[in-house]
Please model this.
Amino acid sequence: MSTRTRANSQAVVVAAQAVEKIYAGGVQALRSITLEVQNGEFVSLLGPSGCGKSTLLRMIAGLLAPTSGSVRVWPTDDIRGTDRRLAFVFQQPTLMPWTSVHRNVRLPLDLTRVGRNQADAQVHSALELVGLSEFGSVYPRQLSGGMQMRASIARALVTQPRLLLMDEPFGALDEISRGRLDSELRELWHRRELTVVFVTHSIYEAVFLSTRVAVMSGRPGRILEELHIDEPHPRTDEFRMSERYAAWCRRLSTLLALGTGAESPLGARHAP
Amino acid sequence: MQYAAPALVGAIVLVVWHVLVTVYDVPSYLVPSPLLVGRTLLQDWGLLFASLLVTLRITLLALLLAVVLGVVIAFIFVQSRVIETSLFPYAVLLQVTPIVAIAPLIIIWVKEPTPALVICAAIVALFPVISNTSIGLRSVDPNLLDLFHLNRASRLQVLIRLRIPSALPYFFAGLRVSGGLALIGAVVAEFVAGTGGTASGLAYQILQAGLQLNIPRLFAALFLITAAGVAIFAVISLAARLALRGWHESELLAER
Model:
């Protein structure tokens, strides 16, 4: 099954038009970014540190305003109400240390005053989705880094969002946890028919997860090239070992190197 | 270990003190032996305990006043940077003014001795609560704040669900300092008020004992003040442990 046919409705979810961002002090973070994300896509923003990819993601979330240009989410009117829900997953788990995992996950529902019983039911299914059913009553710090990240993802999913924005969510994890969470995220995206915008600086992660990768240059960030990763779902560990996977990684690596003027970040010692 | 080690140090100090006083035959009107101090404490217990209650009452009322005022002021401070920058220097001014210098004024202005002493002690104890609580209310994980904004949290929701819990460890750190300061403030204010105050606290007993060269009683009163200070610290630490148990680093280390 091809991933691109899965995007059954071609509704635009994110539309960024000629976006520029200049921070106070004159640092230009982004330059003429134009990006569209269709319903059901998994788009990765791939680029070196400081290229403004997180800035772009925060603009999509509405946490930051562009200096010029526009960033709109669900720009057409035909999608309303609960279908417009988005959620954000931060680089760190960003859990409240003073309360249980269950209550952390329930936070978005508490803030929007969802009834207690319904909220608890939604929390249970969100925790089950990320494999943390048993851990609702513990404090975040009793969990490993990977499990904290799962809790963070459960909190994002608990509102049943249509759009998931993720800012290098697995960047701080070890390779093994990261690989496993990548696989699970890909599965969640498929099962829940999510639209995902995913910020990463890992070429391997971008290739494994995405239906499309937007390669960004160093600061000021602009989109150098968009690459459709035409690989079917499910993507397995076998895919990770395949020659095709390696070829995608090489292509992205070359593009990145062109954009940053640096050597290819995929040296021999970094083979996947 | 946590209790045994300091207890052992205390015991050694007492023994050395006792031996030195006995061996060199130091007269009790200069340095009384710890045994004599203990005996005096028992003998004068009625008198001293009544004074202890007076001093404790002033201390606790002052601490309560300092906490209520300090927290309210901290809440006002974090509402805007303008308010904080305009008012914070005056909070510092309050902190650096020696209480002995202004206590006579307060005692003259406020006719009733107990409120006057409470106000003096509260002034001494106020600053750590203001300073720590306002830092705590500002020390919020910026990502958590973004998360609250993404979910369209109101100002009140942010305050109750995010700022107050984030501020708790800081608040308790301030409270620990303030507890000791309230006691010191109460004793100093009593000293300044002298025998003029009708309520006679431990400072009054120390003054009297000094005038009468009743040094063992002076030591006994001093011991009670110290014991009260340690007790206040212990109670506040316990409260902090109960509030922060399970999640904050400062209390997790103690549990290991």
Remarks:
- Chain B touches chain A through 21 residues (CB under 8 Å).
- Residues 209 and 218 of chain B are 5 Å apart (CA to CA).
- The first helix of chain B runs from residue 4 to 23.
- Chain B has eleven helices and no strands.
